[in-house]
Amino acid sequence: MKLSPSLIALALSAVALPAFADEPAPDPLSFNVGAVSEYRYRGISQTRLKPALQGGIDYAAPNGFYVGTWASTIKWIKDAGGDAGVEIDLYGGYKTEVAKGLTLDFGLLQYYYPSNKLNPSANTLEVYGAATFGPVTAKYSHSTSNLFGFADSKNSGYFDVTANFDLGDGMTLSPHVGHQTVKHNSAASYSDYSLTFAKDFSGLVLSGAVIGTDANKVAYASPVNGKFMGKTMLVVGIKKTF
Fold first, then answer.
1. How many CA atoms lie within 13 A of 183 on its CB side?
2. To which CATH superfamily is domain 4-18+28-241 assigned?
3. Consecutive H or E run containing 236
4. In 3-state terms, what secondary structure has residue 34?
5. For the chain, what is the largest distance between any 2 Cα atoms, rounded to a whole number of angstroms?
6. pLDDT at 23
7. What pairs with residue 176 in β-bridges?
8. Where are the domains of the chain?
């Protein structure tokens, strides 16, 4: 379940700025690799509060269309009795500026867990739409399949608002709030929040995020050790983009 730094980076690069005659056009293909102290998605730990390795490839065409893939090590599938140690995300969409300072982004995102063996399957397909004005992005994601293995959860939705404030010298501050609704399962529905500080050192980004939720502590407890997977924690990360 892809955390949003990669998707945010993709969205920011999806619409190329006009190139000056004496400047080379930006490379539409980019790569990223990184590691985090734990992998949180929509506030819930995917790695039983343990570290994860991550990486992705993005292609952003000058006309606003983009495609990409991203992967992370995970633990929750095996903890639930399945057999997948990795999550692979496949996505594509279109982003365009419709008015000065206002951009719209629409796309499709497939979460794939190879041989996950869960019933219902953890594989999830979502469509999404986002609007960005200034530093603020509001986004809605809608599942067209069951949501991450929850039975009878088709048409679940996630709405979130994220702001990205440029502090200068490569530093950004990003507050975020979101709400996940799980169809026909109110006990699994919850809200999440985070505050992320990041520093870019010429493509090497160091980050720290305080992340938490109001999720049900029973519904989101690890079946391995009983620990709550939505507890408030500081998550640190490092990512290199090239």
1. 15
2. monomeric porin ompg (2.40.160.40)
3. strand 233-241
4. strand
5. 60
6. 53
7. 162, 194
8. 4-18+28-241
